[in-house]
Give the backbone structure.
Amino acid sequence: MEIQGRNNGDHLMRAAILGVVAALAAVAYPAFVRADEPVPDVTGKWVGKSYTIIAGRGGHWPTSVGTYEKPGLYQKDLMFEITHQVDRRFWGVTTLSGNGEKTQEPFIGELTGKDHHFAVFVDTDGYFSGQIEGDVLSFCYTQAGAVHNGSMSSVISCTEVRHQH
């Protein structure tokens, strides 16, 4: 009987050790699997078209005649030039051109979220948020009640731009 008790004790000890090892592995494994991916390099030119709805005029839309009752629906060529990046933070200039107009505006931003693929950035009067998948940034821009040269405007523009390498 004594030998059998030792075997049971040995089995219990081994089971306890295996349980502790399994618990440690379960805690440590996600830390290795979820280790931060490298921050993507977003510097350079991102090019596309804007698809904009606007009430009011000003900023990038100086000739808009849109109202809340009949908003302006516009398209222009769009380029983000990200001139600098330090880790997740970046900055640069937005250029919109079309209909004989060309405007530029600075912005600052940061990458966040899983694998740093969510971009949040602001210019002087509005907000961008979007998702980066490969060389495509899908985003929306919002601006509510910004005043430019005495005119107020509200803008929504959702689109995609492609990274030009």
User: Anything to note?
Assistant: The beta strands are 44-58, 61-66, 72-86, 89-98, 101-112, 118-122, 127-133, 136-148, 151-164. Helices lie at 2-33. Confidence is low (pLDDT under 50) at residues 27-35.
